[in-house]
Design goal:
By secondary structure, the protein is mostly helical. It has 6 helices and no strands. The protein has one domain (2-28, 44-187). 68% of the residues lie in helices and 0% in strands.
């Protein structure tokens, strides 16, 4: 009787653990939208959802996540796979930068650095997409994803500027300029 009761407890514990393991990766973070009626209104909302970034850059174990992601990138060989992976990493970093500002106090500098890294990843995704196009791959789907992601990134950059109150800072001006370059570059991928 005691062993039968232990088996039920083990089975129940296993089911709870399995349920949590399946549910936790499905949790999604949504960006808060600011409303404004002024001339500096936030760009229109984009139907593009950013993935949950997991560990944020201020976490002491973040280096393990970076190591895992770099290791994963090494094993990708097709340019389209690399482009999709770079876009995913870029999206995660954009969301992480926003979460650093909204959920953490005093993390503005780290959020700006993270957004800048996201732009580096986005540039790599564009480069890989261009390489895939040169190699004869169909890039129509990834190009559309890049355009939607770009619009969302611009929207999130604007939200970051609003949240931090550093709209006129040189750092944010550089990021806005870089987003403008991305707009022109994405037109060549069509």
């Amino acid at each position: 009787m005691v062993s039968l009761c232990m088996n039920y407890k083990q089975i129940l514990l296993s089911l709870v653990t399995f349920s949590l393991a399946v549910y936790i990766p499905l949790v999604t973070a949504y960006a808060q939208e600011a409303s404004s009626s002024s001339a500096n209104a936030m760009p229109t909302s984009v139907d593009y959802q950013l993935p949950y970034p997991g560990l944020l850059p201020d976490n002491p174990l973040y280096f393990l996540k970076v190591f895992r992601d770099n290791l994963t990138a090494v094993f990708l060989s097709k340019p389209l796979d690399k482009a999709k992976f770079d876009l995913l990493q870029s999206d995660k970093k954009v969301e992480a930068s926003y979460l650093l500002v909204t959920q953490q106090q005093g993390k503005t500098v780290l959020a700006a650095q993270t957004f800048s890294q996201a732009q580096d990843e986005f540039a790599a995704a564009i480069t890989q997409t261009a390489n895939a196009k040169k190699q004869g791959y169909s890039v129509q789907e990834i190009s559309k994803n890049l355009e939607n992601a770009h619009q969302k990134h611009v929207q999130m950059l604007h939200a970051l500027e609003q949240q931090t109150g550093q709209k006129d800072s040189q750092t944010f001006q550089k990021m806005r300029n870089r987003e403008a370059v991305f707009t022109k570059t994405l037109m060549t991928l069509r």
